[in-house]
User: Fold this.
Amino acid sequence: MILSGGGTGGHIYPAIAIANEIRRRYPDTEFLFVGAKDKMEMEKVPQAGYKIKGLWISGLQRKLTLRNLMFPIKLIHSLLSARKIVNQFQPNVAIGTGGFASGPLLKVASQKGIPCVLQEQNSHAGITNKLLANKAQKICVAYDGMERYFPKEKIIKTGNPVRADLVNTKNDKANGVELFGLDVKKPVLLILGGSLGARRINQLIEAKLDFFQNMGIQLIWQCGKLYQEDYQKYTSAAVKVVPFINEMSKAFAAADIIISRAGASSVSELCIVGKPVLFVPSPNVAEDHQTKNAMALVKEEAALLIKESELDITFESVFEELIGSRERRELLSKNIQKLALPKATEHIVDEIEKLLK
Assistant:
């Protein structure tokens, strides 16, 4: 199996989850990942126990830069490198989960008649997967309506792979609260800005600390590694500031309400967790896909959304209404759980098995 996906955790972790499930079913399978040199997959994939090779490739920027002028050269170089990798490794199947490195790799694999599977995490398809759609045998998606981007006959709705510990976790609030040293009798707000952190969400929480204190709200605040020095000083009995949460299942169990970005993997996990969620999508992503991910849930009355630009005006009123209405919270929880697809990884590997047969 050859797998390619990278640039962000949202592309890398689904690829690793798929590989883990294939390895569980077929322990003797040989795996090779292909990523972009100098991107996070070159670190994260070996940590997960897999070999990876890097291509000299990067995305186009939205303005004229030297990097953009280099793009044609990098693309040709990556296509030649991908051809060499495929010729040497001779995979039975090629799997792409998005990111620029998957473009050259799957293009070469498809030219050589190797079956290709795409996995698209977002409700708005990424440019690489859109360009590869005609080359693929199957396209596994997480949202309805993806025939806007892909040939309808190739689409299979599987959902996005999520961490196994979340699927199997028990919603034990007392256990989760104990881990973070909080009071089990008081409500807990979990703030997630991703592993690196979300500057605007951190600024919001800092500005609203007195507001939360007056309401008797406790915080588990994942500020991100980039912002640890700025916000660690706010740690107290009722505010737990951490750069990264390793035992995420316990954090979810402790939470009564969650504030989160709306990356595809986060959305899929939160559907399984089934807690009331207030999304603050990042506006700094390609084609505003986080807002589109969140809106897919908002339309089903399964989550709330506040744009970054409206936080100062509307946050307090929206939060007060949510915390004050148990009925509203229960409705959001019930509806978001309806959208969960906990067996996504297994279903994706089922489709890969069909290609092998």
In short: The chain has a mean pLDDT of 91. The domain at 2-162+343-356 is CATH 3.40.50.2000 (Rossmann fold). The CA atoms of residues 222 and 242 lie 5 Å apart. Residues 66-89 form the longest helix (24 residues).
